[in-house]
């Protein structure tokens, strides 16, 4: 057995004086040691600057006992303490609308009524043959079951029910597909007369989409698909009357209701409401998807806020995960004197090393010592968390990359531990897109030294490790800076940027919430200076929610270059306020990246990076400060990421999409390989002229423009730019241009927008 250690922190961002707790799981080692390091450079490629991770706190813990902590995936709902009050002593009906997505996957529970000893008193489920089934236990402890014997069709709406008629002393199990051109006829199964009935206790718990709670020791049979309007009532109801009751759950006053759930209420939360008058509410766990179309959805309304009754469904998945829920192994109280920066708890055992990064911000209320801030794009880190899509379809992924896939040790580990898998590029086991990604689990891709298959030819830097190229460059040129996270910016808005004159982005700030986007705009409107040091930034909209810390939500819609598309009617965010609104790309919402950074996503490729060629804009007097000491016409024909400064994902100007008309194009890339292809939104009709060797739209533009408030924006338009900073021991034209820009941006003297200058 290969030894391993993996962990996560309860926070990604802390202030000096606060405490971060760490949860750890391990195998193959009896104990491990912990110290705290500052990550100045996480690049271990021999051609790079080298790892620079000085220890700041020794012996946080020594010989901590190692242990394995389990991960329980699969979302479910729970309504505790349901009072039966003898309402189920005679007739009863248990029913719901369902939309199964993997009915052929084996036994799956839709609704389970449990006694206080976790026995299943009554369950409505899908059996091993994919048909609707029911099972129950009578007063003598004998188990009974019933099945329609007719397999359910995937992605089809059904009204499913089990009803007991005490007068006939018979159970009737029914699966009735929603009417339509291709609907199945109803399937009905009836028990023999004198059937034994369930022994309902006076109080029971209801579970949705599972048969047992995680960690209970009982076998769990998780359900994939949607559930809409589940009910248990003390009457025998069937046919149109039952359908009417489920469609109007608030009309159930005469139905001797035990539990009636309306999922159209509290959609942004994990609460589920029981609406029969008990005042009881339940909880959803492991973040099933809400704000999804239900039985009543007609295609006339696409925003769940406008017609919530059309969105009474919850989509459960057997591989959903929010919080791994591990116990705390150790904590680190952050000293008051510790400078702001990117740090990590380093866990070591013989032959094993693990890093759990976190960001330290300045003390709350303390005067800012630094005027430069680096924004850690942790929303994008979570979007790509433990990315393994290259292993799921290598037959097309290798041609897509233009090279063979070489898996790193952490990627191989992730293949062996699917419990840590699933990012916003993944599909659930039922083929639907993953809408939520959480940092409350080990994220091995958010580590120093991590080599990604997406990182192009060369050092494999992507996301976290690539961003450390910027931190090491700042350290090298002696510019002090503070660090904050996307999560901070979403929570605090513009206030998070108080005291800073210059904001530096990471190499790939792709995922941005509405509040983050507005904070960037407000920062520029008060004279701030923005250095956009990457490519494909400000592209996808995401949402955070205070009730679900550590999670981002994504709705891809049906536009943009996407790994999956939202189902019809499901493009609106469930999280956050109404302002979160429509998901998809910022371009779809009329706020394309060009209107903020001057450039926006135009193409991607993952083999070789290209150089830039200077353009007339670089000789404009307005750009003179950037090119002091630079005489080269060719810029960045070197670099750790693909051998050039323009690569992986690249951006260009576009006046139609909002590039300010006074923007200077300083340089543009050339020689992009045929594996660089235009993004989907740039192709209205299919044609063959979309690759880097034939399309003039496949290029990275290096740009600069001044705002009307004395600030300015510098944009590299390339993820690979920062991989060129350390070339030749930082003595190169990319490093020189970037440093010249930063030092001028730090000078308080206002920039003058040329079209606003007085004549």
Could you write a compact summary of the structure shown?
Helices cover 11% and strands 30% of the residues. The protein is mainly beta and 759 residues long. The longest helix is centred in the middle third of the chain and has 14 residues, at 464-477.
Can you give a write-up of this model?
With 759 residues, the protein is mainly β. 11% of the residues lie in helices and 30% in strands. The protein is elongated. The strands form 6 sheets. It has a 16-stranded antiparallel beta sheet that branches. A 9-stranded mixed beta sheet has the order 27-25-28-30-40-39-37-34-35, sandwiched between helices. Strands 2-24-23-4-5 form a 5-stranded mixed beta sheet, with no helix packed on it. It is built from 10 helices and 40 strands.
Structural descriptors:
759 residues, mainly beta, 16-stranded antiparallel beta sheet, 9-stranded mixed beta sheet, 10 helices, 30% strand
